[in-house]
């Protein structure tokens, strides 16, 4: 199968998905689509069922109920020629050299030996592992092994890339490098489904997102739509003095002299600023920003803490 959807058809279509393990219902009712060419963030707190959903989509788990389609049908491994899947649990042949492992997987994915070798060398150069091409995989650090695993995942230029926490455990420099590589895949037309807990990655890369909570979609849409839904615009103010009680905004205090003002009923920037100045507040800076995905994540998943009882 070439994984390619007709323009109007989503590439990935999940409808009324339910997944029970024994008496526990991990996914209760989940529906979403991923369009061809988009980068889609699949988000949610630990243990909420993201990996489970990907496994059901790829036929590793049998869903309890619902439809999970790639390119209009249930996925079968033999259809996966242009699928790249980076699973949460990584697995490479540890006793072989980095280059041998990469070439081996390249051959499995249909590349010629020469092409696989040339591609792997160029990739290792890019991820700063050129000097380790002949090193045994088990002598690499876990981050280095992950770089190799990502290389193996993308080396046949997949049209659908499913990445389960691709940057888990990376330092900020390497995380940025990996993001650049994923962004290149996106630019070259790949559809990317990405599980991540890094909200700055979401803001940088994702066209649309879904936030999974209690077995269903808590939010679903473009990043801007989700930001609008869970807070929209905020005003960040640095000041001296005391902020007046106001009907125009709700204040959250970040640190001494810094607050975030969430406008009520769309109160305009100028009205809020005027109120502060009229109350004698010395405003050092006043900026308009969208609620960050980090704040939205905490807002949605922090709610759980309020519902948990019994730990008194
Ligand atoms: N094969 C299985 N049998 C029983 N329970 C399972 C199985 N696979 C997953 N689960 C349970 O389903 C729940 C969701 O797990 P899953 O790995 O999908 O979460 P996740 O959202 O990917 O979490 P994380 O962000 O921590 O990786 C967990 O409670 C897990 O224990």
TrEMBL record:
It is found in: Cell membrane. The keyword Nucleotide-binding applies. It is a peripheral membrane protein. Signal peptide: none annotated. Residues 12-239 form the ABC transporter domain. Gene3D superfamilies: P-loop containing nucleotide triphosphate hydrolases. The keyword Cell membrane does not apply. Keywords: Antibiotic resistance, ATP-binding, Nucleotide-binding, Transport. It comes from the Bacteria. GO terms for molecular function: ATP binding. InterPro entries: AAA+_ATPase, ABC_transporter-like_ATP-bd, ABC_transporter-like_CS, ABC_transporter_ATP-binding, DrrA1/2-like_C, P-loop_NTPase. SMART domains: AAA. Its main location: membrane. Pfam families: ABC_tran (PF00005), DrrA1-3_C (PF13732). Belongs to the ABC transporter superfamily. This is ABC-2 type transport system ATP-binding protein. It comes from Microlunatus panaciterrae.
């Amino acid at each position: 199968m070439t994984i390619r959807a007709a323009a109007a058809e989503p590439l990935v279509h999940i409808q009324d998905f339910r997944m029970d393990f024994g008496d526990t219902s991990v996914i209760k009712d989940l529906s979403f689509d991923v369009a061809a060419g988009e980068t889609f963030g699949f988000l949610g707190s630990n243990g909420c069922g993201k990996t489970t959903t990907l496994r059901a989509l790829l036929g590793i788990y049998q869903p309890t109920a619902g439809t999970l389609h790639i390119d209009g049908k249930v996925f079968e491994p033999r259809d996966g020629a242009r699928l790249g899947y980076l699973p949460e649990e990584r697995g490479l042949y540890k006793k072989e050299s980095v280059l041998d492992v990469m070439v081996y997987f390249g051959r499995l994915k249909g590349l010629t030996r020469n092409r696989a070798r040339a591609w792997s060398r160029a990739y290792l150069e890019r991820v700063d592992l050129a000097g380790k091409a002949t090193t045994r995989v088990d002598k690499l650090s876990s981050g280095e092994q992950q770089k190799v695993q990502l290389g193996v995942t993308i080396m046949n230029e997949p049209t659908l890339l499913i990445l389960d926490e691709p940057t888990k455990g990376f330092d900020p420099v390497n995380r940025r490098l990996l993001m650049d590589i994923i962004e290149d895949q996106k630019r070259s037309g790949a559809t990317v489904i990405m599980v991540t807990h890094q909200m700055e990655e979401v803001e940088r890369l994702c066209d649309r997102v879904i936030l999974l909570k209690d077995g269903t979609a808590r939010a679903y849409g473009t990043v801007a739509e989700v930001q609008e839904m869970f807070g929209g615009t905020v005003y960040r103010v640095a000041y001296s003095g005391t902020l007046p009680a106001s009907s125009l905004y709700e204040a959250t205090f970040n640190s001494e002299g810094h607050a975030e003002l969430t406008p009520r009923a769309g109160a305009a920037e100028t009205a809020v600023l005027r109120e502060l100045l009229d109350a004698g507040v010395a405003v050092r800076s006043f900026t308009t920003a969208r609620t960050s995905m980090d704040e939205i994540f905490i807002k949605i998943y922090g709610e759980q803490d309020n519902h948990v009882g019994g730990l008194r």
